[in-house]
Design brief:
single chain; alpha/beta; Arc Repressor Mutant, subunit A; D-Maltodextrin-Binding Protein, domain 2; two-stranded antiparallel sheet; 14 strands; globular; DNA-binding; transcription regulation; transcription
Length: 374
């Protein structure tokens, strides 16, 4: 019997998530590709691993048994890989890291350049995900480590199977149209009269921003709900509202935007999460150290003082405001990055609307047919 590790990973994800579609999404494959590989696994085993129940394909008792053994097999492979990496005279390994836009463009380039000079055998491959997805991807073995964030007013609940290394602490600022807030600092309460540009509530950043407004005693008027920080800052520049921005988001500030310190002292902590059983992996620790060093060199290290706020530009007369239309629902962008993710200068709430049409049933063929979706 020849058991393929990639197919065992797919079986494990099907067992964990319950549907081929969910397993495929988690592994960044198409459902048809996963179903084809699972059908091949069934042929390799020579026994029935799947059966159809209603609209879903489910594991048989034998399929569950193999999936449970797959957990141990894959964990053993990871331990063996770690042992081989650490046994050599120099560290040589591939590490897959989950990132989002601000850290990918801000912290990662300098860190990986330095790492390549000191440890050329360590190859880091990055995958860009929404901040809300990264920890689960590490837990499920899709990534070796990933950036995660905690907001001072919205801490994360941590999975016991994960450890984390704190990399940086960022201050949050108010990004406002030039001249709209002539003072050097502003409170969240003082921004109550302004229209807001925010991430969706389902994102960590969007939920933290809403909580900050609520703590100041109001529900924000959100005229524009966008995913990308570049979009939010461009809207601020056009005078369409105000938003929050972190240190790693300051470099995308276009002309016409003032960055003002918040009297409410909101911060977010950027960490690297990794599985507990891989915490001693030499290559992983080298990557963590390189990224932590890059953050410290930017003045964002966990043990450094928070940076001074960027002073506002010279106030200019505010444009004449037209009566605002009533807030309307906006279409959410398909991209998966939270507002606040941009390059540097030198659980959760928000229900996703249910599908209006029922998903196609998952179908199970014979051992000689493709296991897939109709």
């Amino acid at each position: 019997m020849d058991l393929s590790l990639p197919r065992l990973r797919m079986l494990r994800e099907l067992h964990r998530r319950g549907t081929i579609t969910a397993a495929a999404t988690a592994m960044h494959y198409t459902a048809s590709a996963v179903s084809q590989q699972l059908a091949q696994l069934e042929r390799d085993v020579g026994a029935r691993l799947f059966e159809r129940r209603g609209r879903r394909v489910q594991l048989t008792d034998l399929g569950v048994l193999l999936a449970e053994h797959a957990e141990g097999i894959l964990a053993a492979v990871e331990r063996a890989t770690q042992a081989i990496e650490e046994a050599g005279e120099s560290v040589s390994a591939k590490v897959t890291a989950g990132v989002w836009a601000s850290v990918a463009s801000g912290l990662l380039p300098d860190a990986l350049t330095a790492l390549a000079r000191t440890h050329p055998g360590v190859v880091v491959r990055s995958r860009e995900l929404a901040p809300e997805e990264t920890a689960a991807a590490v837990r499920d073995g899709e990534l070796d480590l990933s950036f995660v964030i905690d907001y001072s007013n919205y801490p994360m609940t941590w999975d016991r199977s994960l450890e984390r290394a704190v990399i940086a602490v960022e201050r949050l600022y108010a990004a406002v149209p030039a001249g709209a807030v002539p003072a050097a600092s502003v409170t969240m309460a003082e921004l109550a009269e302004h229209p807001w540009i925010m991430s969706p509530a389902r994102s960590h950043f969007g939920h933290a921003a809403r909580l900050a407004c609520q703590a100041a005693g109001y529900v924000p008027r959100i005229d524009h709900e966008v995913e990308e920080q570049a979009t939010a800052m461009a809207m601020v520049s056009a005078g369409l509202g105000v938003t929050l921005v972190s240190d790693l988001g300051l470099a995308l500030r276009p002309p016409g935007v003032d960055v003002v310190a918040l009297g409410d002292a909101l911060t977010r902590t950027v960490s690297l999460a990794y599985r507990t059983n891989s915490g001693r992996r030499a290559a992983l620790l080298l990557v963590v150290d390189a990224i932590r060093t890059a953050a410290a060199q930017m003045g964002l290290g966990a043990d450094t003082a928070l940076p001074a706020p960027t002073p506002p530009s010279t106030p200019v007369p505010a444009p004449t405001e037209q009566p605002a239309d009533p807030p309307s629902d906006t279409t959410q962008h398909a991209t998966q990055h939270s507002t606040g993710d941009a390059a540097p200068p030198n659980q959760r709430t928000g229900a996703v609307p249910a599908a209006t049409t029922a998903p196609a049933p998952e179908t199970l063929g014979s051992n000689t047919e493709r296991l897939g979706l109709t």
